[in-house]
Structures are given as C-alpha cells and as structure tokens.
C-alpha cells in the first residue's frame, strides 16, 4: 500500500508549481535583494511580487506584509514587538489556554520578566467566550492574542468579534492564523486584526518562511536588529527562494480556495461519519461545525494514541496525536485538557488532517485500518475488557 498522508496540519508537501517557481532563485538568479546591480534588482523584484501575492490572499496592502522565518517568529515578533512598543500604556496580555506554544511560551517568558497575563479558558469545544475576553480587559492591557483556528482540534475562534471588542477598548489584537490562511477565506479589512501570523509550509509552500501582517499605523518594535531589510522592521537578508515559493503558494491558494475547501470538508465529514459509526467509544474533539475543513481529532477510549499512531505508521499511514511542535513530549495535549478531557482520554486522541492530495479511497482505507487497529489494541486493554463484561 502506498503512503497515505493524513498530517497536513503538521506540514504540507511543496506543490510542483511552487518548487518550479523557486528553482531559478536557487541557482542563476541568486542575487541579494539589497544589491543595486542586475542580480540584486531581479531578487528585489521577486520579493516584492511575492509580497503582493501574500497580501492578496488576506486582503492586505503589500506594505503591511513583512516576511519572517515562519509562524513561530511571526508570533514572537507580534507579542514582543507590541508589548515593547506600548510599554508606556501597560504590561498586561490576554491570551487563551489553547494557543500554540509559539504564543504561550512567549507570553510565559514575558511574565517571567514582570508582565502579567490572563489565560482565558475555553468551553468543551475549545471556543473562547467573547464576554470573558471583555471582562479580562484592564486599563493596562496592551495586547490580546487569540488564534484564528486551533492547530489540534481545528475549532474556529470568534476572532472577528474579538477584534471589534479590542478596537473598541483601544487594545492591540493579534491572531495566529497559521492553520487558517489558505483553508478559509480571510480578509483583514473585515476581520480587523492589528497583526496576523502566516506560515508557508502549511499551504503547500516551503518551510522556513512566513509573514507577519502589521496593520498600517500599528506600533511594533523590531524583533531582529541589523540592516534596513523589510522596510526597516525585520533585519536579515531575505530568503528569496523561500519568499518566491511562499508567494506562489499564496497565489494558488487564493485561486483554488473555494473548491479546495469544499473538497477537503467533504472528505473530513466522511472520515468523521465512518469512524464514529464503525468504532465504538470514539468521540470527536472540537466543534462539529465551527472547525477547519480538513481537521479530524478523535479520542478512542481504552487505547493509547501513541500505539494507534505507531500501528498506522506500520501500515504506511501518517497521522499525529496533536501539534508536531510538541511531539517529543509525553504530556497529554494542553488543548484537550483545557477543553475538559481527562488525561486518559487525551492520551487516546489522534489528529488526522486532510489536504489537497487526499482522496475518498484513502479515507476508506484509513477507516478500515483504524477499525482493525483499535480492535486489536483493545483486546490487550484490561480497562476495555472490564467494560465489555458489564
């Protein structure tokens, strides 16, 4: 059986069109965008074209797009930069308990330096309550950072409402949209964030490239210091091949967004229906409707998620137990725990994320294998045996 890749939330395959766009900038068009000669001008033009492509995907002005090394840097920059630029206003941050660790660990570091933070709880679906956001705002609140969509359970947060609330109270609003950009229609003019993070490798682009959208007029201190790159806000010679690939990936995502989302949503719903219908003691995590088109996160009672994943891998099926950035941790998902799941249930969870190259036949194959794997693992589970005897 050929490999079946159901881990598109961790990373995606680089599209052939993207790789082709990058290739010239890896060999003959190798100039530094800061150089004034022909090679430099070629590179500079390519970077600016990509900036326009990224901006078009989210409805921004190209001058509001700043290239970074990825989503983690974009998140770090948004938080550090906003706090430092607005230190005179206050030293309080609001975020949620289910953010990516690129946000949580950054906030925790700032807390260790003397700032204060409010970590908002979520409901059983992983949704942040807007009233809780409003109640958490203090006179010294400088930033609200709530993700657009969760990377583990796919829940789509009420970011538009949070953005309106933040503006009405004069508080900066950042959203980590790494999982949402390219999967859902996003227009920053309607959404209203002051800052928004994007990553290239989640949308069939290369790794090591991303962007931070910074609304015009937003005060943000640089994270990196050096030259005058990226409109004097992010020092360092630009990753031209990565930027070109990122731009092309954004262009393709914008052209195919509606069709791609519908196809992925259809496969997602089939996978959920088949798994829940055929495997007992399986529970969907996250909101049944307010979720990313390709995200399926399910807890399987009486078995360990790691055992399921290893068994799937032996069959050539790639899935995950949560964020790829925390795969080395033995702790259960902080997202699932925040949603009220027990440690035991959280440890029995599997995330399967679908994308452009997945098919209905693959979904059916995975469900067949899952049914066999879960049945085999449960035969070795004393907990399951005691339940079955009742």
Describe what is shown at a glance.
With 390 residues, the chain is an alpha/beta fold. The chain folds into two domains: 4-11 and 257-383, Aspartate Aminotransferase, domain 1 (Alpha-Beta Complex), CATH 3.90.1150.10; 16-253, 3-Layer(aba) Sandwich (Aspartate Aminotransferase, domain 2). Helix content is 43%, strand content 13%.
Key descriptive features of the protein:
390 residues, Aspartate Aminotransferase, domain 2, 2 domains, seven-stranded mixed β-sheet, three-stranded antiparallel β-sheet, 14 helices, 12 strands
The 3D shape can be described as: globular
Assigned CATH architecture of the largest domain: 3-Layer(aba) Sandwich
Percent helix range = 40-55%
Name the poorly predicted regions. none
Q: What is the strand content?
A: 5-15%
Cα end-to-end separation: 39 Å
Biggest sheet strand line-up: 2-8-7-6-5-3-4
Number of domains: 2
- Would you tell me the structural class of the helices and strands? alpha/beta
* CATH level-3 fold name of the largest domain: Aspartate Aminotransferase, domain 2
Question: Would you spell out the secondary-structure blueprint of this structure?
Answer:
Blueprint (H helix, E strand, L loop, with lengths): L3 E2 L10 H7 L15 H21 L6 E4 L2 H15 L6 E5 L4 H12 L3 E5 L9 H7 L4 E5 L13 H10 L3 E5 L11 H4 L3 E5 L10 E5 L14 H4 L7 H39 L3 E3 L10 E6 L4 H10 L2 E2 L15 H5 L4 H5 L1 E5 L6 H20 L2 H8 L1
Helix pairs in contact: 1-9, 2-9, 3-4, 9-13, 10-13
């Amino acid at each position: 059986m050929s490999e079946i890749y159901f881990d598109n939330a961790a990373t995606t395959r680089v599209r052939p069109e993207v790789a082709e766009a990058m290739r010239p900038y890896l060999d003959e068009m190798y100039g530094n965008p800061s150089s004034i000669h022909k090679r430099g001008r070629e590179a500079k033009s390519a970077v600016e074209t990509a900036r326009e492509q990224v901006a078009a995907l989210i409805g921004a002005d190209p001058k509001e797009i700043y290239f970074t090394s990825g989503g983690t840097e974009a998140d770090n920059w948004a938080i550090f930069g906003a706090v430092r630029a607005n230190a005179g206003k206050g030293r309080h941050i609001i975020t949620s308990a289910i953010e990516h660790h690129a946000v949580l660990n950054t906030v925790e570091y700032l807390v260790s330096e003397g700032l204060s933070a409010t970590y908002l709880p979520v409901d059983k679906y992983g949704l942040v309550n807007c009233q809780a956001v409003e109640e958490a705002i203090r006179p010294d609140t400088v930033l609200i950072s709530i993700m657009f969509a969760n990377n583990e359970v796919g829940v789509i947060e009420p970011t538009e409402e949070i953005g309106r609330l933040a503006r009405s109270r004069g508080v900066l609003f950042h959203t980590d949209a790494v999982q949402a950009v390219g999967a859902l229609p996003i227009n920053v003019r309607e959404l209203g964030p002051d800052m928004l993070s994007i990553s290239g490798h989640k949308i069939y682009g290369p790794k090591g490239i991303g962007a931070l959208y910074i609304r015009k007029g937003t005060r943000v201190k640089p994270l990196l210091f050096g030259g005058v790159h990226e409109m004097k806000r992010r020092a360092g010679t630009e990753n031209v091949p990565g930027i070109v690939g990122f731009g092309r990936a954004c262009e393709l995502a914008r052209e195919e967004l509606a069709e791609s989302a519908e196809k992925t949503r259809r496969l997602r719903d089939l996978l959920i229906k088949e798994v829940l219908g055929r495997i007992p003691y399986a529970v969907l995590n996250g909101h049944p409707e307010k979720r990313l088109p390709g995200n399926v996160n399910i807890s399987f009672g009486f078995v360990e998620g790691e055992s399921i994943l290893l068994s799937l891998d032996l069959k050539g099926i790639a899935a995950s137990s949560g964020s790829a950035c925390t795969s080395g941790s033995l702790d259960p998902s902080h997202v699932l725990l925040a949603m009220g799941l027990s440690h035991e249930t959280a440890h029995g969870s599997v995330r399967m994320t679908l994308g452009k190259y997945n098919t209905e036949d693959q979904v059916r194959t995975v469900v067949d294998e899952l049914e066999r794997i879960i049945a085999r693992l449960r035969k070795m589970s004393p907990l399951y045996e005691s339940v079955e005897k009742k």
